[in-house]
């Protein structure tokens, strides 16, 4: 608010001549044209409602009268004595409310906007803020572009007398109303028109986004202000750290920065690293690298941190050649190689199937005295299992657990999928146990992967055990889960056990699907139980919702019936 009060700078625009001034400071009661009213307000020391009612018995009811009065006052760059700019603004404020009370129709959005600029020009920030919030509430629009157009148009129409103070105040108003999306839109709107919001305005939007849990908006605001070279203050850094804390990623980001730099860094470094990582996660590697170079020029991050993150960005998009070039540049500049940058290269090699190269990097990492961490082993385990190097994958997996390293839930699910795909469901189950021991609670995706894994190896007991473990943990079972469960049991060759869960679905009021019936019929046909398959088929077509079997299932059943009869 203080920055908004003190930061009103003049912008070049078309010059609008001020209205003519008369010699008298009083106006006859019968005259109530916009020109006479504005002249009266501009030359009176301090008007009251009583004075206005006495001077203008007939309120300016015609549409456009109030707009014309306020526009005339807004275009007056330097009011003459005895009325100062503050007095004129207060007179306009009194006139605005007096005319509202006397008029049957509400004031237009343009009237609000013109008066806000008048009040902001006179540094009457509290009055302007209250009025602006009322205007936003009464004339809200989604998106906010129509309101922004009206507000900026009033600013331009005010001529050379206007300052940008009112524009900064607009961002504050949206933030105070806890409308961070609209505040961000206002920031972008103004930036496109070469009016850069103040640091306090950006901070206000960050605060609103943090308080309302709109974390994506917070990162977009932080990115915009950094791109526009409005650099973070201590308050900005504290707000960004607060966003990280509420997202639950603060500890992980701090650990990552420490792993790169070798020691703890200031909160400002952590905040800017978090911004770069967020941009990379959005899939905008080039934009993130550009921002990192700018941060490096301003000494916002250390050299080794910036170059390590650039290697990470290239690895994320699978550009191994650029990642290697950035690695070489990092070495030439004398930057310290670290576990994070090695792990990035290990990951991209594993994803592309170059597991041997990834293993060599691990050995090089160990020879330098650098310690692998959970992500390093996760890449190697996943890569080995996906590329049919099960023995080495199991070796790395055992080493990871022996060192007490358990990755986050998302990485665990990737490892589980790779293990189950390789038929190592027992090891996958061990990983889930280690996750629980470390306080990581498995979700539905984790259990789904285990069920699929047990189904592939034909372990009926394992599938059923997972179901009851999920029941014990209170995880909700939807139709998709039961489809996966029944599919696994049919894959194990046990349609009878699978059919029990159809009745469970009915008790839970979950709709039976054609896919489930197809799986059961096909499984019974494969087991040679044609009688039960026919009963299921009859049940499908006689249901109220009438489930239609697939063509493949129907033909399988027909062939089985013909075989039995012959």
Automatic annotation (TrEMBL):
Keywords: Repeat, Transit peptide
Keyword Repeat: yes
SUPFAM superfamilies on file: TPR-like
InterPro entries, per database record: PPR_rpt, TPR-like_helical_dom_sf
Keyword Nucleotidyltransferase recorded: no
PROSITE patterns tied to this protein: PPR
Stretches forming PPR repeats: 303-337, 338-372, 373-407, 408-442, 443-477, 478-512, 513-547
Similarity annotation: Belongs to the PPR family. P subfamily.
Listed name of the protein: Pentacotripeptide-repeat region of PRORP domain-containing protein
Organism: Hordeum vulgare subsp. vulgare
Lineage: Eukaryota, Viridiplantae, Streptophyta, Embryophyta, Tracheophyta
């Amino acid at each position: 608010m203080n920055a908004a009060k003190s930061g009103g700078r003049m912008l070049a625009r078309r010059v609008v001549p001020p209205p003519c001034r008369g010699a008298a400071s009083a106006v006859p009661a019968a005259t109530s044209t916009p020109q006479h009213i504005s002249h009266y307000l501009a030359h009176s020391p301090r008007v009251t409602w009583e004075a206005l009612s006495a001077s203008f018995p007939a309120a300016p009811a015609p549409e456009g009268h109030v707009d014309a009065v306020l526009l005339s006052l807004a275009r007056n760059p330097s009011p003459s004595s005895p009325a100062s700019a503050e007095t004129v603004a207060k007179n306009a404020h009194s006139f605005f409310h007096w005319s509202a009370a006397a008029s049957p129709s509400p004031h237009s959005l343009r009237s609000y906007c013109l008066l806000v600029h008048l009040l902001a020009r006179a540094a009457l920030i509290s009055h302007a803020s209250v009025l602006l919030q009322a205007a936003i509430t009464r004339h809200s629009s989604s998106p906010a572009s129509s309101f922004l157009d009206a507000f900026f148009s009033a600013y331009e129409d005010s001529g050379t007398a206007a300052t940008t103070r009112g524009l900064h105040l607009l961002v504050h108003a949206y933030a105070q109303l806890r409308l961070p999306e609209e505040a961000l839109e206002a920031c972008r709107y103004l930036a496109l028109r070469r009016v850069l919001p103040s640091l306090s305005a950006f901070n206000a939007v960050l605060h609103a986004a943090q308080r309302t849990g709109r974390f994506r908006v917070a990162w977009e605001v932080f990115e915009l202000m950094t791109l526009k070279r409005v650099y973070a203050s201590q308050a900005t850094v504290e707000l960004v750290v607060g966003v990280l804390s509420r997202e639950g990623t603060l500890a992980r980001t701090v650990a990552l920065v420490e792993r790169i730099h070798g020691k703890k860094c200031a909160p400002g470094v952590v905040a800017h690293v978090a911004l770069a990582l967020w941009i990379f996660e959005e899939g905008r590697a080039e934009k993130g690298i550009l921002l990192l170079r700018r941060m490096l020029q301003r000494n916002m991050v250390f050299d080794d941190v910036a170059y390590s993150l650039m290697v990470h960005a290239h690895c994320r998009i699978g550009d191994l050649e650029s990642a290697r070039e950035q690695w070489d540049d990092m070495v030439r500049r004398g930057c310290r190689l670290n576990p994070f940058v090695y792990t990035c290269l290990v990951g991209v090699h594993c994803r592309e199937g170059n597991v041997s190269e990834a293993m060599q990097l691990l050995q090089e990492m160990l020879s330098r005295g650098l310690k692998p961490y959970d992500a390093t082993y996760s890449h190697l385990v996943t890569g080995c299992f996906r590329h049919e190097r099960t023995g080495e994958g199991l070796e790395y997996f055992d080493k990871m657990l022996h060192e007490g390293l358990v990755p986050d839930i998302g990485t665990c699910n990737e490892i589980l999928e790779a293990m189950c795909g390789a038929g190592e469901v027992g090891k996958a189950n061990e990983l889930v146990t280690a996750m629980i021991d470390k306080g990581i609670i498995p979700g539905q995706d984790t259990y789904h992967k285990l069920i699929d894994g047990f189904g592939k190896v034909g372990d009926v007991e394992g599938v059923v055990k997972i179901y009851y473990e999920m029941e014990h943990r209170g995880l909700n079972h939807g139709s998709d889960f039961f489809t996966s469960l029944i599919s696994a049991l049919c894959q194990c060759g046990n349609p009878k056990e699978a059919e029990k869960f159809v009745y469970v679905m009915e008790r839970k009021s979950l709709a039976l699907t054609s896919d489930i019936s197809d799986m059961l019929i096909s499984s019974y046909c494969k087991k040679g139980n044609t009688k039960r398959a026919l009963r299921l088929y009859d049940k499908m077509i006689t249901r109220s919702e009438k489930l239609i079997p697939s063509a493949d299932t129907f033909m399988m059943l027909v062939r089985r019936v013909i075989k039995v009869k012959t």
